[in-house]
Amino acid sequence: MGSEYKQWHEVLCAEFFGEGNERRSTVLYVDAEVERELAERVGTGLAQAVVGELNWSDPHRPLLSRIQRECEMWEQNGSVGPPPSLPVLALSVLAATCMESSDGMLRSNFYGRWSQLFGEQPSSPRAHKLVHAFEDVAGMWEELDTWLEETGGLYGTSTISTDECYWKIGFPISQALVRGSDRQVLTRFFAATRLRPHNPDEVSGRELLRRLRVWTAGRDRRLSPRLMEELASAPDTGETLIASLVKRLADDWDGTLHEPEREHRRRAMGLRLVVADRGRRLEWLAEACDGIDETRVAVPGGRTFTLHKAYGDVYEGLESLHPSWQQLGDGLHLEGDDLVLEWAPQEVVLLRLHPHLGEWVSTEYFEPGEQHWILAADSAVRAVRSMVDALGGRTIREASAPVPGWKLIKGVRAVNGLAFVSALDRGGDHAHVLEPQIRHHAALSGGLRIAPEYRAGAGVAGHFLRGGAPDLMLPASDSQDGRVEVVLDGRTEKLRADPRVPFPLCLIPLDEGEHRVGTAHSSQVFTLHDGLHEGLPPGTGTLGYPCDGTAQSELSEVTDSEAAIRGAAAARSISLPRTELLRSSVLEAVLLDPHGGVRRAKQRSVPAWMTSRLPAAALGPCLEIEVPDGCVWLVYRTAARWSVRAVVAAADIPAPAPAPDDYAWAYAVLSAAQRLQVPAWLDYVAAAEAISGKRGSL
Q1: Are 617 and 454 in contact (CB under 8 A)?
Q2: Pick from 118, 304, 316, 529: CA 20 to 30 A from residue 546's CA?
């Protein structure tokens, strides 16, 4: 190879595959500006260096035979360092960045720009030879992709992609779509959409494009015009080039921001919004990052907050930062040396009940069949109201939000498949709020669940009542007819169904027992049961009223197999203990009386008839606790905060009368001091402050 070509190879190696690129997405982006900057180091242009290596003189040998020979020698010598084809590949990317409708060429004319870089007219014989030689260039791209994979990320991870439409020219186009500034913005997008590092949930490329369109809608996120054009024109079906590229970037994303100006790469995560206390209070929720148990973040030019990792993989420390209408509409940015938290501004926020916190938390996608709340700015309420009304079903409820200028729309569900599809297809400014996640795998949702499956590795989605089987969420179809091949207990059938709408398995008569459903690539197992009371509970009496449609009027002795209305021996007077339901996600709970007494809440034992029919580890979402006589308040702690509620009627709560040294009682009260504002509770808070000496200091 000539000296100029070698110099370009060395410069490209250092720029794109050098130190600091290990295990980071590698995009060989070379446009006219980058080419000029790198040419200053070499002293000659990229095209000129490549032209010097072309074989124009021997018509019996390939045009790129010299470079191909160097690649063969490189492979024979152990493939040390990037392949010698880098300048040729970089030049093909330069051609892809020049693709636009000008100079008599269409935007789609890659080969015209490719020939133009070599100084050839598109219709000339030499241009035809350059086009024919591009099949060899495509092979070089595949070689580079294989080398990056085989080196295990030592020089970076590959983003080289193509599709059936482009094939050969798709390789350089995939590198031309995302420039350096785009990569920086995309890492912010991955964080804002709460994508986890290396995409362990396997969010599909099409789903990422859907989220990216929502994230960029109506706002300048500073993505390059070329990427924005590709994003707007990409079809919603099939694995497009842009979808494949964004998916590879997401799979390689390590959870940090792309900030070349910083030596230390910061982790990033999107904030969630919590609507608590039945819609009366808003809070910010920050999910914890692995490896960062404690850190500090600040509003630029404002307050600083110390974050501590708490139970449930969330951070404590943002409780005093109350969401405002300005933050909701304009966004919120918290920065630290190690962590960046961001809330992207939006007019409409979709919320779903969190399975552990028991509060309504913002989410990225709509789940058909499940209940949702929508928080909408007044400017969007009319459009949102019209949109959710089109879903049919139960009447929604509307209430004022805890911040001025916003409304809460409660009880939003999609139970009518046709109405749901119609609402989505009709579109609108906020239709993205109703978009379900685009799935690559089959999933189950809804159903009359008896119990979840807690056995690790058992692979069972849950236990359901027969006749109340869950709904099947189908993956998106790539076939031309839009049909998905579904496998149920070994039987296969093709269904033409919208992947956004769940298929109701309860319509299929299924026997009691275990069932497997899904596709050839992904399936789930669930079980059906006729019920939990198929036998007589222990201690059932032997006397009863035989019943054959109508119960007999005379009492007689009955056997276990007879249908009868029977009772059990019981005392003349039964005093049942008072009980309260508490979510199983509660970490600790205490019961308080007016006289300074503190009792830890005790869970009632699981009945024998239940433990004999369910797995030992199966627990429902709530615990039943006994409330001793005299106790008036229940104080409990979740992963996010302390809370309190009365366990007797407000009129029956006596004034507090603790002793001066009832410190445990005072500590319990003060833990939830700000969580309730009723007069009776404020009297208890005042008494606790007097004991702790903190009156007036909170």
Answers
A1: yes
A2: 529
577 touches 627 (CB < 8 A): yes
Please list the alpha-helical segments (H only) found in 162-271: 170-176, 180-192, 205-216, 225-233, 241-252
pTM across the whole model = 0.60
Q: How far apart are CA 62 and CA 54, in angstroms?
A: 9
* Side chain identity, residue 61: R
C-alpha closest to that of 635 among 578, 593, 685, 591: 591
Under a CB-based contact definition with an 8 Å cutoff, are residues 515 and 461 in contact?
no
Residue 67's Cα: distance from chain center in Å?
45
Least confident of 40-54, 78-92, 616-630, 661-675: 616-630
Measured at the alpha carbon of residue 325, what is the angle toward residues 322 and 330, in degrees to the nearest 5?
A: 105
In this predicted structure, the answer to whether residue 697 has a pLDDT above a threshold of 90 is no
Give 516 or 392, the one with higher predicted confidence: 516
- Are 434 and 421 a contacting pair, CB within 8 Å? no
The burial class, CB within 10 Å (0-12 / 13-18 / 19+), for 342 is middle
Q: What is the Cα–Cα distance from 61 to 393, expressed in whole angstroms?
A: 71
The contacts found for 305-310 with CB under 8 angstroms, 24 or more apart, are: 305/334, 307/339, 310/639, 310/640
182-231 tens-digit pLDDT: 888 899 899 888 888 888 877 888 888 888 887 887 677 888 888 888 88
Tell me the average pLDDT across 450-460. Answer: 64
Q: What is the pLDDT of residues 307-327, one digit of tens each?
A: 998 877 889 999 999 999 999
- pLDDT for position 696: 42
**Strand ranges (DSSP E) for 354-415?**
360-362, 372-377, 397-400, 406-412
Q: What is the DSSP string of 21-43?
A: -TTSEE-----HHHHHHHHHHHS
Indicate the pLDDT class of residue 442, thresholds 50, 70 and 90.
Answer: confident
Give whole-number Cα distances, 132 to 168, 368, 518, in Å: 11, 51, 45
| Host H or E run for residue 350 | strand 348-353
Closest by CA to 484, choosing from 525, 519, 456, is 519
Query: Over the chain, what is the mean pLDDT?
Result: 85
Q: Reduce the DSSP state of residue 232 to 3 states and report it.
A: helix
DSSP-based three-state secondary structure for 527: strand
Q: Which residues contact 472 (CB under 8 A, 6 or more apart)?
A: 442, 443, 444, 486, 502, 503, 504, 505, 517, 518
User: For the CA atoms of the chain, what is the radius of gyration?
Assistant: 33
Q: Which residues contact 361 (CB under 8 A, 6 or more apart)?
A: 272, 273, 274, 275, 285, 351, 352, 353, 354
Q: Is 429 left (phi over 0), alpha (psi -120 to 50) or beta?
A: alpha
Q: pLDDT-derived band of residue 597, with 50, 70 and 90 as boundaries?
A: very high
Residue 573 has pLDDT above 90, yes or no: no
| Whole-number Å distance between alpha carbons of 196 and 50 | 41
Q: Is the pLDDT of residue 283 over 90?
A: yes
Between residues 587 and 381, the one the model is more confident about: 381
| Per-residue pLDDT, 146 | 93
Q: Which of 67-81, 258-272, 433-447, 566-580 has the lowest mean pLDDT?
A: 566-580
Q: 3-class SS at 323?
A: coil
Residues 6+ apart with CB under 8 A from 684: 592, 633, 656, 669
Q: Give the helix ranges, DSSP H, for 568-625.
A: 608-611
Map residue 281 onto helix, strand or coil.
Answer: strand
Show contacts of 298-304: CB within 8 Å, 24+ apart: 298/334, 298/335, 298/336, 299/332, 299/333, 299/334, 300/333, 300/335
Give first-to-last CA distance, the chain, whole Å.
76
